Amino acid sequence: EYPEIARRLADSGAKPNLQPVELRRRIGPIANDIIKLSYRRILDTCRARGIPVVAIVFPTPQKSSFDDLPALTKLAAAAGLPLITLEGVYDGYSVPSITLQSGNNRADPHLNGLGHKLVADRLYTLLRADDAKLLKIGFAGLH
């Protein structure tokens, strides 16, 4: 369905029956290209249908090996997606104070009420700011 992605995967030698380690080795060098192509496809599809689109860079409260906000931000920008970044939204708060807690006092990766409030407040502020005018979205005209 996505010829440019299918071609990149075929050229890499990635196949469904490969062991995970070998699959990652083959896809690793083209992963950023696939992400950028995917972002571009989202943008093109939305624009073709008259749907406003904006990428929101949304950090997870806990650091993981999958978090690379600067790299994902660059890929989204390179694909032409308008960006709003929420990087730093949790600054000054401990992970347990903004996430759900399980019975054994370990943090659940999902945000609690405070975590959601921090995200909502930051997003609202950014939508009211100059970015909203640039993106032609938001609440700048409301009082």
Q: Would you write up a description of this structure?
A:
By secondary structure, this protein is mainly alpha-helical. 50% of the residues lie in helices and 10% in strands. It contains seven helices and four strands; from the N terminus they run αααβαβαββαα. The strands form two sheets. It has a two-stranded parallel ribbon with strand order 1-2.
Let me know the largest β-sheet: 2 strands, parallel
Amino- and carboxy-terminal Cα gap = 45 Å
Helix content class: 40-55%
Order of helices and strands: HHHEHEHEEHH
Q: How many β strands by DSSP?
A: 4
Discrete helix count? 7
Q: Please compute the radius of gyration using only Cα atoms.
A: 19 Å
Question: How does the overall form come out from the CA principal axes?
Answer: flat
Give the strand content.
5-15%
Strand arrangement, largest sheet? 1-2
Quote the average pLDDT: 83
Q: Briefly note the structural class of the backbone.
A: mainly alpha
**Parts with pLDDT < 50 across at least 5 consecutive residues:** none
Q: Topology, pairings included?
A:
Blueprint: H1 3-12, H2 20-27, H3 31-48, E1 55-57, H4 69-78, E2 83-85, H5 95-98, E3 99-101, E4 107-111, H6 113-128, H7 130-135
Parallel strand pairs: 1-2
Antiparallel strand pairs: 3-4
Helix pairs in contact: 3-4
Descriptive terms for the model:
143 residues, mainly alpha, two-stranded parallel sheet, 7 helices
Task: Summarize the model shown.
The protein has helices spanning 3-12, 20-27, 31-48, 69-78, 95-98, 113-128, 130-135; strands at residues 55-57, 83-85, 99-101, 107-111.
